[in-house]
Structure formats: C-alpha cells, structure tokens
C-alpha cells in the first residue's frame, strides 16, 4: 500500500489546528470564567481558591498536544509544499549525476506553486527548461515519484537511435570522458560503462553508456503540448519517456537542485545538481 505522507501531514495539521482554534475560541474562555468564579468563593481559603483556579485553567491533554504540535506541523507543511521537499534516490537511472542513496532537495516553486495533495497549480512562476533534473509523479502511477532529466519541451521532435540523441533534427553534442570509475549499482560491473559529457543547449552534464549493450528503445517522438520528454542520465539503464511516454505538466513536482546527504560519500554533500 502506498504511503501518502503529504496527505497525512495535511490531516494532522488540520486536526491539530481545528482543536487549537476550538479551544482558543470557546473552551479557554469557559476555563477562565470557571477560574474567576472559584476565586470569588468566600467559603474557601485563599490557597484553596488559587489551587482550584489553577486546576480549572489547565488544558486537556488533546488541547495541549494540539497547541504544541500545530505550529510545527504548519511550518513543515508550508515548507514542504511551497519551498523545498527532500527525496531519496532509489535507483541508478540518473548515474553518474545522482547515485543510489543520495538525499536531494527539490525546489517546489520552480514550476509553479501547487496545493498539497490536490496538486492543483495556484501560481504560475516558471516552466521546465531543457536540461533540468526534475521530479514528477510517474504518469502510470501518480503515487510514485520519478526523477529524470528534461530532454524534450512541448513541440520538440526527439530521436534516439544507435545511442545518439537528437533534438529537432540536431544531434546533441557529446564528448568522451573515458571509463566510468565511480560507485555502481549492486550486481553491476563498473568497467563496462563509459562516461560522456553531454551538452543540451548549454547545459553540460555527464551521462553513462555501455558500448557493447544493445541500445535502449529507439525511435522518434514528437512532444505534445503541455508535456515533456524525460530521460535518465544512465542511458542504458533508465525506464523513461522512451518506454512509457511523456510527462504531463500536471504531474510536475519540482526541480532538483542540491545533494544534502549521502552516507556512502560525505564529499557529495552540498553538491549542486546540474
């Protein structure tokens, strides 16, 4: 069963907020009135009146928890929904740019502000650019997040054949950098992969290719309006738009911009994603 953290966060924030507001508007006043009535009792000693008044003013356990947690939950919800959200890289489809286990931050306002859970855009502040590393909800299962690189914009013609990527009829510039020597996925050799530098209209980044492997699904695709063509930097090991189609604009989550943690390589902390 898929776990929807955003929905849980919205529910908890709403519940604690409603409990705190109900107490502030109604119950707190009742407690204050009771405390004043107790203080006016002449049959009690002053110490008894003060003790009973303090007891009358005490909040219930649910109200105390709501008052304590609501501000924290609200800040987390607003930050996660409209500023930045953390993600963990689960696979090697974006190697060598991103490694398995990288913890990254995603800019949530780069492609427009969206309501949490509903994902409805409420403010248009930008659109994906060619070469962006972006997170989106997988079109075939919107409860699952994917991360790839933007290759094709609306209206573009994308061709991938014999490991050569072309955009609008023009082959993308590549430079050989030699054998890949970095970390690899479990069960995969690192000595069969080659690193290349790819230049997507000024956005330079590294990609992985396995020369002796059959090319991944080949073909030509025309990107429809309101959609994007996505590919992984690990070109021979990425389930992307070559296989399952285009990314609708409504599925955009945000732009990946920094690696904030990787327990297998502390030197990667703070690395900007490009």
From TrEMBL:
- Protein's UniProt keywords contain Membrane: yes
Q: Where is the protein localized? A: Membrane
User: Which Enzyme Commission number(s) are listed?
Assistant: 3.4.21.89
Please give the catalytic activity noted in the UniProt record: Cleavage of hydrophobic, N-terminal signal or leader sequences from secreted and periplasmic proteins
Enumerate the transmembrane spans: 6-27, 65-83
Could you tell me which Pfam families the record lists for this protein? Peptidase_S26
What Gene Ontology terms describe where this protein resides (cellular component)? membrane
- Catalytic residues, per the record, are 93, 148
Q: Which GO terms describe its biological process?
A: signal peptide processing
Pinpoint the Peptidase S26 domain residues: 64-260
What Gene3D superfamilies does the annotation carry? Umud Fragment, subunit A (2.10.109.10)
Any one GO molecular function term:
signal peptidase activity
What topology in the membrane does the UniProt record assign?
A: Multi-pass membrane protein
Q: Which UniProt keywords apply?
A: Hydrolase, Membrane, Protease, Transmembrane, Transmembrane helix
Entry's family note: Belongs to the peptidase S26 family.
- The name under which this protein is listed is Signal peptidase I
Origin organism is Dokdonella fugitiva
Q: Source taxonomy lineage?
A: Bacteria, Pseudomonadati, Pseudomonadota, Gammaproteobacteria, Lysobacterales
